[in-house]
Amino acid sequence: MSTLHLRGLSKSFGTVEAVKDVTLTVPGGSLTAVLGPSGCGKTTLLRLIAGFLRPDAGEIAFEERVVAGQGQWVTPQHRKVGYLPQEGALFPHLDVAANVGFGLSREERTPARIAELLDLVELPHAMASRQPHELSGGQQQRVSLARAMAPQPHLILLDEPFSALDTALRESTGRAVVRALRAAGATALLITHDQNEAMSLADQVATMRAGRLVQAATPHETYTHPVDAEVAQFVGGANILLGTAGQGVVECSLGTLPTDGPATGPVQVVIRPEQIELLPLDAATGPDSVRASVLEVSYYGHDASVRLSYASRGADPVTSGELVVRVNGTDVPRAGDQVGVRLRGPVLTLQS
Fold first, then answer.
1. With 80 as the cut, is the pLDDT of residue 310 above it?
2. CB 193 within 8 A of CB 199
3. What is the DSSP track for 229-291?
4. DSSP-derived secondary structure letter, 91
5. Most CB contacts within 10 A, which of 86, 240, 285, 347?
6. Separation in Å, CA 15 to CA 10, 11, 19, 213
């Protein structure tokens, strides 16, 4: 288990700053997800760590061993980094056993070691003689992971490895990969644009935007205390309102709401969709509720996303804003319905 240290890492391509002064620690034996939209610098960061690119500034170290920076440069093949690409990239002319054992020496490439690695990624030993085209997409990714883990690398890089899989297979394969990494005590870095994947699989979420690392925290901390409104909206979705905070409350278009911190003055109010409760219209009479009209419903089975317009608290019933609400899939309103809206619990405020 090696701890990965990135210190002031930067890389530009002409006038484009792809990675800007990134400092991040990935503790040994943990999984960190680097999360962000396309073009934010995730892949460039991965390629710097793997040694496919040289940084313009900063350093990369495994424990205290510097592999880039301080006048040091260790080539990719000597970094002991495992790599799991998007499509797995198995050798089509080799069977599973030969693919898994590809990075091992002749002495290490024993049936017992191959069987151990197949056990680690939860594949039956009988698959050792199969060809890659005889495997499902999820099975191919597990074989690729076994191949990456076989030489016992310092770090395993996972480059959006589940993006080509369907939703159900993504989840099951992701869970199997995490179990394998934990069983091996491996240190891993997962590159993804999927916030559900990052939040559900990782020990730490490193959120990137425009080449910069804007927040590195546990999934719970990232969700409950995002560093800014953009992170809040990217991770889980959020309604952002303007308000004025003081003495434990915030005044906004939804009324006077309790806050979770000591912010004062102008703030951005972060309201998660699941914090909002829909009521019958005749129940929206208290000081903690407003009237609203359902504009659009997106139904997903287990739940639904409801977009609505609401009337500002204390004003005539005219539209003053929109909210997105997440409701249980068994109790879904229809477009055009008139409803009441009430918030559950305190809201997060971000200083403007």
1. yes
2. no
3. HHHHHHSS--EEEEEEEETTEEEETTEEEEBSS---EEEEEEE-GGGEEEEEGGGTTSTTEEE
4. -
5. 347
6. 13, 10, 12, 19
Rounded Cα distance between 308 and 326, Å, is 11
Average pLDDT, integer, range 308-330: 76
pLDDT for the residue numbered 81: 94
**For residue 41, pLDDT beyond 50:** yes
The CA distance from 35 to 144, in Å, is 22
pLDDT value for 48: 97
The residues near 154 (Cβ < 8 Å, ≥ 6 apart) are 2, 4, 62, 79, 80, 81, 187
What region, left, alpha or beta, does residue 143 occupy, with left being phi > 0 and alpha being psi -120 to 50 degrees?
alpha
pTM of the model: 0.90
In whole angstroms, what is the distance from residue 229 CA to residue 207 CA?
Answer: 13
Angstrom distance (rounded) from CA 100 to CA 109: 9
All structural domains of the chain, each given as residue ranges with its CATH number in brackets, are: 4-232 (3.40.50.300), 243-351 (2.40.50.100)
Residue type, 300: Y
Tokens of 108: 């290490």
CB neighbourhood size of 286 (10 A): 11
CA 42 to chain centre: 12
pLDDT tier for residue 158 given thresholds of 50, 70 and 90: very high
Residue 315 has pLDDT above 60, yes or no: no
C-alpha R_g of the chain: 24
Whether 222 contacts 205, CB under 8 Å:
yes
